[in-house]
Amino acid sequence: MGTSSRGRISIDSDVARAWTLPSHLYTEADAFAEEKEKIFARSWQVVGHHDQAANGGDYFTAELAGEPLLMVRGSDGKLRGFYNVCRHRGGPPAEGCGSRKLFRCGYHGWTYDLQGALISATEMEGVEGFRAEDFALAPVRAEEWFNFIFVNLDGDAQPLRESLGKLAGQVEKFAFSGMKRCERRTYEMECNWKTYVDNYLEGYHLPSVHPGLNRELDYQAYVIEPYAGHVRQSSPIRGAQPGDTTARRYAEAGEDLTADYFWIFPNWMLNCYPDNISLNIVLPLGPERSVAIFEWYLPEEQHGSAAARASVEFSEQIQREDVGICERVQKNLRSRSYSRGRFSVKQEKGVHAFHRMYAEWMMKD
Ligand code: FES
Ligand SMILES: [Fe+2]
To answer: What is the 286 CA–ligand 2 centroid distance (Å)?
Structure first.
């Protein structure tokens, strides 16, 4: 174990003895800079979804940990990722998204093929030792899982599927492969990205913060299961109860209907309901600012339906409630009165698992 510029970060492995991460890690610029290198530049990050690069030649640009990226589907069907940085003097080989046979740099026109090879650099005659093969676009690791496209800036990171561990099998029961993205919304938040993740990882706040959601779920039967690189939270969905005055979203809820909430280290989440799945990604913008990206996936024939709108509005309401409490908490984490707290053994195993993973990644050299 190494030492972070912040000193040792240590979280007891026993939730009953552990304290939460110190609050300065949620507010200070040097912790933020270190997370970018040790966590965001080393973990698998969702940068797009399949339909953005479905056919050969389709491409889109993205950004990860400040790095400009170019994702492109080759004519061989393989998805590849590159730094979107021209090897001449740093111009942009691609802008936005679309479909191309070649990428032509917007600065002096060097052209690259779909595999990143430099195929033409005009007026470079007489340059000593210049060989086009030495100036291919620098690749990044790209992989796909379900509808999502991932990138990892770390050449030594374990393959995506290995890093997902048991997640793949757990998500299978939801009919995800038949769903397509029908809506995307972004929410800027005045809080650290970890404040948002902490909040996501417990249902402890449901009765106070989300009375509407709490009506749909069986709070008493809420389970939290930490795994090596992710946390599963699951709750049976309640059917209509005798004496109910408000309508239930799942009136016919049976025994095996669950809402499963997966968080995958460090910053992405899948909310799985019987009839829709939403993806959340929280991206740090600054020590105390972040953006939550929400995407809703439904079977295509349901796009635009009243049920689809209801699903989106339902999560929108929950999101507004979460942003409200996260921004309040962020402000309070700055208080001189506060540094660390304790975990509820029953309710906060997920938050504890996140803090353990965070400490481990930040302590790597
Ligand atoms: S920087 Fe790309 S061609 Fe000059
Ligand atoms: Fe919440």
So the answer is: 22
From the candidate CATH numbers 3.40.309.10, 3.90.380.10, 3.30.450.20, 3.20.20.70, the one assigned to the domain spanning 23-43+166-363? 3.90.380.10
Mean pLDDT of 18-32: 98
117 alpha carbon – ligand 1 mean position (Å): 14
Alpha-carbon distance of 41 to 153, in angstroms, equals: 5
pLDDT digits (tens, 9 = 90+) for 165-201: 999 999 988 877 788 999 999 999 999 999 999 999 9
pLDDT for 239 equals 64
233, HSE (Cβ side, Cα atoms, 13 Å): 26
Collapsed DSSP state (helix, strand, coil) of residue 338: coil
Q: What does the radius of gyration of the chain's CA atoms come to, in whole angstroms?
A: 23
Domain ranges across the chain:
23-43+166-363, 55-153
Atom of ligand 1 nearest to the CA of 105: 2
Ranking 178-187, 231-240, 307-316, 348-357 by mean pLDDT, the lowest is 231-240
Of the chain, the percentage scoring pLDDT greater than 70 comes to 93
Residue 6 has pLDDT above 60, yes or no: no
3-state helix, strand, coil in the chain (%, to 5): 30, 30, 40
Q: Strand, helix or coil at 156?
A: coil
Locate the ligand 1 atom nearest the alpha carbon of residue 93 and give its number. Answer: 2
Which residues, 6 or more positions from 42, have their beta carbon under 8 angstroms from its beta carbon? 152, 153, 154, 157, 361
Over residues 72-97, mean pLDDT: 98
Residues with C-beta less than 6 Å from any ligand 1 atom: 86, 88-91, 105, 107-110
Distance between first and last Cα of the chain: 7
Q: Is the pLDDT of residue 243 over 80?
A: no
Interatomic CA distance for residues 234 and 217, integer angstroms: 9
* CATH label, 55-153, candidates 3.40.50.300, 2.102.10.10, 2.60.40.150, 3.40.605.10: 2.102.10.10
Ligand 1 centroid distance, CA of 72 (Å): 19
